[in-house]
Design brief:
single chain; 69% helix
Length: 98
């Protein structure tokens, strides 16, 4: 069997697994990271299909821009705060500027 065909088969399996894992993930951050990885692997598939222009668009828009927007949105969701910064206890109040 041709080594290129083996690579294509592995690429398809990885794409299917990434798609399933991103959709089935209960952890939102993990789902976003898997979505970004899916976009990058899909870009490799487009290169293998002989469409480098589509691969660049997929990597830039599908994985890069969309992934950055999803991560920025995730960071703004309520409940993503891990608590007060180090050295501060949650009971301390900010000093008044009076």
């Amino acid at each position: 069997m041709n080594p290129g065909l083996w690579f294509d088969a592995v690429l398809v399996v990885v794409l299917l697994w990434l798609a399933w894992a991103a959709l089935a993930s209960r952890d939102l951050f993990r789902g976003i990271v898997l979505f970004i990885a899916f976009g990058l692997v899909l870009a490799m598939a487009w290169v293998r299909l002989g469409a480098p222009d589509v691969a660049l668009a997929e990597a830039a828009i599908g994985a890069g821009l969309t992934g950055a927007l999803l991560l920025a949105t995730w960071g703004r969701l309520p409940g993503q705060d891990d608590g007060p910064p180090e050295g501060e206890s949650p009971d301390e109040e900010a000093p008044d500027d009076d």
